[in-house]
Amino acid sequence: MRALIVVMGLGASAGASAQIPVIPPAVAPPAPPPPAAQLTPTDAASSLKRVRASYEYGDIDDVVEWARPVAEGRLPATPVERAHALRYLGIGLFLTGRAPGAEAAFFELLRLRADSTLDPRTTRPDVVTFFEQVRARHVDQIHAAARENNHKIFALNFLPPVGQFQNGQRGKGLVLAGVELATLATTVTTYVLLNRWQKPDLTCPSVGYDTCRTVRVVNWVALGAFIAACGVGVLDALGNYSDLPDDTPSSAGPRAALTPSGLSLTF
Description:
The protein is built from ten helices and no strands. The chain has two domains: 106 residues, Alpha Horseshoe (Serine Threonine Protein Phosphatase 5, Tetratricopeptide repeat), CATH 1.25.40; 86 residues. 61% of the residues lie in helices and 0% in strands.
């Protein structure tokens, strides 16, 4: 009887054990993926690209962070790229309440490009006012820096398209050179033909009146076009003499954007 009770007790214990679920060892849940690391910019173009993207999303703090390496010279940049970065940095610092830093950035921008402006149609009035106040406070230093930074030869402005090439406007210079060469060649060619055909009385019996008149008209039109092209080239070179060459790709330059702050930039 005692043995039977022991056996029954063991069976009951075994039955109870079979009903208890087996809990597997606790396994830690997989860690969430880390946030995308903000890669350190390796060149000015990629940094300015990130600045534009942050600006379009209204992330002004990010604009400041990514504009700094270019503006402060920690990344090699062309003068135009650095000017863009300084402009973004100054506006970003002003909008985030750091007026002294914004003044330093704007001052450096004006030392680099004395003709820089902020478009009042697309920029908040308080930013434009602050920018012009910086210009007024440092006008003497800005003018001195402009004279120091300008290594161009003023006389070359009167030799189009040399003035365009000096200003860094290669495309415009090539177009102007093509127009000048074509009109000059036409002028010289028609002039030589007229001298060969014309008699002292300005008639052209060897080719006929109509041909002579047509060539004479072409000669005068070509000469006028050549003079006009030279004049336009001189005026254009003088107008852009104080500018730095726009040697950055169009894709790298800032674009107009509407942000939640209501501020937009155009260059």
